[in-house]
Amino acid sequence: MNSIIKVCGMTEADNIRAIEQLGVDMIGFIFYPKSPRCLCEKPQYLPLRAKRVGVFVNESKENILMYTDRFSLNYIQLHGNESPDYCRTLHNNGLRLIKAFSISLPKDLFDVSDYDGLCDYYLFDTKTPQYGGSGNQFDWNILHRYNGSTPFLLSGGINPYSVKAIKEFHHPRLAGIDLNSRFETAPGLKDVERIEIFLKELRNS
């Protein structure tokens, strides 16, 4: 499996460095104050090889541009109710976008096509009452109804025992997976050994 591996919600320098050394492609930093994984201050180390992804929820364009500059972000992940017009303004500023969509029923895919051409990737996550992840998995079969042209990352409850399900899920636009809470020892602190074992199993096709 040569698809994108994204690890999200990281906060501590040594942990970031160790996860990057596993060969992951993207590392996500959450800038949403209500998240237990919010990055409150700039860590002593930020990834040099893995792409830096900033995660925002209904944030102002000005603040996103400020964070992009301060943290040298490669991608902006939008996890709120951001409209296609809002995405267009960021896109026109040269930002690369990942738009998250919360999925529980097929109808949750209805609005996705409104964002075509505005995002580099979509991220399909489990629907929850609040913004952000739940640690639970939605029914991935719903995504077989997605026939858009934008590639997507699969998120929501992926855990150390998900390898078989990931290998069995096929979609022409599947670009990669997003790992977060199910690989933690505490909010924002990832279990390096657990992720290393998971990636070895995933890459051993």
How would you sum up this structure, described in words?
The chain is α/β, with parallel strands linked by helices and 205 residues long. It has a single domain, classed as TIM Barrel. Helix content is 22%, strand content 22%. It contains five helices and ten strands. The chain has an eight-stranded parallel beta barrel. Strands 9-10 form a two-stranded antiparallel sheet. Strand 9 (184-186) and strand 10 (189-190) form a beta hairpin. The longest helix has 12 residues, at 192-203. The radius of gyration is 16 Å and the shape is globular.
The CATH top-level class label? Alpha Beta
CATH topology: TIM Barrel
Give the count of structural domains: 1
| Structure class | alpha/beta
The biggest beta sheet reads: 8 strands, parallel, barrel
CATH superfamily: Aldolase class I
Helix content: 10-25%
Q: How many individual helices?
A: 5
> How would you write the strand order of the largest sheet?
1-2-3-4-5-6-7-8
Q: Tell me the total number of β-strands.
A: 10
Written as H for each helix and E for each strand, in order along the chain, the element string is EHEEHEHEEEHEEEH
